[in-house]
Amino acid sequence: MHKIFSSKAFILGLRLTFGILGGYLLAALISMFLALLIPHPINGILLGMLVSLLCYPLVLLWLLASPKLGNSIKYLTALIVILAICTKLIS
Amino acid sequence: MHTEKSYSWRKRLLPIHQWSGLLISWLLFVIFLGGTLSVFHRELDLWFKPELPHIHSSLNIQRDTQAGINYLQQHAPQATRWQINYPSTRQPFIELSWSQNNKQHQALIDAQQPVETPRATQGGNFFVELHHELHYLPPKFVYFFLTLVAVLALVTLLSGVISYRRIFTDFFLFRRAKQQRWFDLHRLLALLPLPFYLMIIYSGLVILGIHGVMMYGAAAKYPQMGQFYENLGFFRMPARGELTQRPLNSVDSYLQQGMLYFPEQDFRLISINNPNTTVAKLTLVANKEHQLSRFAEFQIYDLTNGKLLTNKQGYGWGEDLFGATIALHTAIFADYPILWLYFLGGLAGCAMIASGTFLWVNKRLMKQTSTRNIWWVDRLNLSVILGFPLSCLGYFYANRLLPVGLLERADWEIHCLFLSWLAIILWTFFSSPSITIKWKFLLRVGAVFLFLLPVTDIWVGHPIWQNIYQQDGVYLSIELMAWLLASCCILAANKIKMER
After folding, report:
1. How far apart are CA B291 and CA B327, in angstroms?
2. Which of B104, B110, B217, B370 allows an S-S link to A48, with CB 3.0 to 4.6 Å?
3. Which of B29, B64, B499, B79 is nearest to B268 (CA)?
4. Would the CB atoms of A42 and B325 count as touching at under 8 Å?
């Protein structure tokens, strides 16, 4: 069992899963946050989409290449929580 | 300390580049090739419909609108939406499209001869659909799946650029040794059009975003998503349901009224939602040809009482930025030199993906490791990198060879593409010859079919000598491109050495 959890393929799978799901969640929150922050009925939504889709691959790359996966997950979770609170506050 | 840190980053990024690249390479190749061919989808439409008259009428908004409406009244009176695209420099015919029973239909007609050609085909539009919907699969699922592929493609590109240390100093280095040769080619094809790849993949991602993948901002602001799309100019129509019938009024007065508002006094298209009902609405969209924006000014009229419902004049900075991003991907602003650059960029992308997968195999062959992986990758390379373009050629042949009166002919043309691809995949995986012999054989088959493609134009009344005489750029370009590719196939088949 220990062998499976410490194998390269398992770690890569973990990084991919966190990168894809975490990155998507963060991107979705960024798009909502910017849409609500900018009062214009369309501009904020479109800018949010542009910025969030730029962030998504960068987050995935960060999660895939970071030296310590645990630390990256911590920072990503913190970012997601902060953004979620901010979005809730301005909504 | 700093150097060590950056070295370790590079070291970590290299396997990410290799494995994420390999994982998406075959699907990305299909998407890139579909996109490359759809650059000229309007021109391919003309080739796929050889019965269209060679001499076409010049643009006349009123006459073309009437011809379009007459045709649609005759063929699709019950459609939920009609759209009439006016002739342009790239598409000299009136392009009609309509939605009926959740299916999109399309026809090209000329104002003087408003009859559809008998050859039912999806033409160049199939490549557009393949590029972003992959055909056969449910679009919602495909949009999410393609988003993942596009994100991984960006990760692969960025990790490749960062992980290779001497990327600019070795830019023009070209070595003869086998493995280095593939590496140098891959690097050159990746770096030279790098801004194009970044732009095309990112803008593709944005298009997928607006198709529902990243609509959380709009969902947070609009309780009814339809309102957002209408504000943007993506016209969503109400479901047909039980609507009261009412004959359609003449739209001439609206066209004249619209011309006063738009600075160029010109329209790109008009659409009618729920025609022949009491809730019919007419949308006039201004012509913004050669402008870097997806969005154009538009007006919406209620056809029952003649009221102007919406008069969209000018967009905000967000819409302009977003519209420019989409326009960059779809190249709607481009004229022929730019379109050829897009085409070459797309071909370079295909070649970059192919050289990357060859490099992956060669590296492992030299180390003599993981023979099972090599067996799979080798066969997948052959079935996708050569097999898929060959089956696209099958689609071209199906257009010429299938009987004109065949039931559901347009669908069968597409089935022919996928059936021929399936045959190639099965042959690649289950036949006994070595992989090198298979490459040589398929390249030669491809060369023969490419060489004979212009011959098929003879029996649809477009022989090459006539195309030269009439200076028909579309036919001549396709014929010359076919012969050029045939020569490349022969050269490649002769170059492949019996190494394995």
Report:
1. 9
2. B217
3. B64
4. no
Scored b (16 or more CB within 10 A) or e, B303-314 reads beeeeeeeebee
Q: Which residue has the tokens 């901002």?
A: B217
Match 């459609």 to its residue by tokens: B79
The C-alpha atoms of residue B461 and residue B451 are separated, in whole angstroms, by: 18
Strand partners, B104: B99
Interatomic CA distance for residues B197 and B157, integer angstroms: 8
What own/partner pairs with CB < 8 Å and gap ≥ 24 does B226-235 have? B228/A42, B228/A45, B230/B310, B231/A41, B231/A42, B232/A42, B232/B295, B232/B319, B233/B285, B233/B295, B233/B296, B233/B298, B233/B312, B234/B210, B235/B271, B235/B273, B235/B283
Show the tokens assigned to B441: 């054989």
Q: Helices in B368-386 by DSSP H: which ranges?
A: 371-381
Residues B23-30 have a mean pLDDT of 95
Alpha-carbon distance of B127 to B186, in angstroms, equals 26
The pLDDT score that the predictor gives to residue B1 is 43
A81 to chain B nearest CA, in Å?
17
Distance (Å) of CA B387 to CA B129, B323, B326, B345: 19, 36, 31, 21
Tokens at B55, concatenated = 């001499």
Q: Is the pLDDT of residue B60 over 90?
A: no
Spatial distance between the Cα atoms of B163 and B151, rounded to a whole number of angstroms? 18
What span, in angstroms and rounded, lies between the C-alpha atoms of B380 and B356?
A: 13
Tens digit of pLDDT at every position of chain A (91 positions): 666 666 777 888 888 899 999 999 999 999 999 999 998 888 899 999 999 999 999 999 999 988 888 899 999 999 999 999 999 999 8
Phi, psi of B473 (to 5 degrees): -60, -35
Mind spelling out the 3-state secondary structure of B243-308? Answer: CCECCCCCCHHHHHHHHHHCCCCCEEEEEEECCCECCCEEEEEECCCCCCCCCCCEEEEECCCCCE
Q: What's chain B's length in residues?
A: 500
Rounded Cα distance between B470 and B50, Å, is 14
pLDDT digits (tens, 9 = 90+) for B163-195: 877 777 777 777 777 667 788 888 888 888 999
DSSP for B122-156 reads -TTHHHHHHHHH-SSS-HHHHHHHHHHHHHHHHHH
Q: Which ipTM value was assigned to this complex?
A: 0.92
Would you list which residues of chain A are within 8 Å, Cβ to Cβ, of chain B? 12, 20, 23, 27-29, 31-32, 34-36, 38, 40-50, 52-54, 56-57, 60-61, 64-65, 67, 87, 91
- Report residue A33 as tokens: 């946050």
Whether the CB of B116 is below 8 Å from some CB of chain A: the reply is no
d(CA B418, CA B97): 25
Task: Count the Cβ atoms, other than its own, within 10 Å of residue B107.
Answer: 21
Distance CA B136, CA B125 (A): 15
Question: In chain B, how many H helices and how many E strands?
Answer: 18, 7
Q: Which residues in chain B have their CB less than 8 angstroms from residue A31's CB?
A: 214, 216-217
Q: Are B48 and B123 in contact (CB under 8 A)?
A: yes
